[in-house]
Design a protein that fits this description.
By secondary structure, this protein is mainly alpha-helical. It folds into two domains: 1-46; 47-178. It has helices at 7-16, 21-45, 49-179.
Length: 180
Amino acid sequence: RRLYFDTHALVCLLEANGFTTQQSEVVVSALVKIMNTNLDMIYKEMVTKVQQEIALQQVMSHIGGVKKDMIILEKSEFSALRSENEKIKLELQQIKKQVMDEITKVRADNKLNLNLEKSRVKELHAQQDRALTQTDRKIDTEVADLKTMLESHKLDNIKYLAGSVFTCLTVALGFYRLWI
């Protein structure tokens, strides 16, 4: 058996790193035994060239048999499969046509429903706009009434204030005359 490393160089390396000669030889001997054991196990599991050739010939003969069976099946079953395939294609075309008809019906129904819903929404918006306009008018009327009332009260307050001021002035002038 070949060893893939220099045992003497390994012994020298171990000695250079502090091992004794006997210790170095024991370590290298153990490594050689381990490698030989591993190689024995590997060789037991390996296939020889002759065995590989025999297995290849067996596989090739099986492949040849399968090819012959496939040709026979192809000739006998191919026409049956072709006719079955044609039947399935026709059925598929019929189903496709039915589905397209159904899709067209559903689309038409959806468009009709959508248009009806749009008109309902427009009518609802128109009603809401009318109600909003009426509410705006009522609010504007109420605001105008409140402004008028506010102006009226403002004028009344100015009148009362002017009257109170003149009354106070009159009373003050009266006291002033009395004192003078």
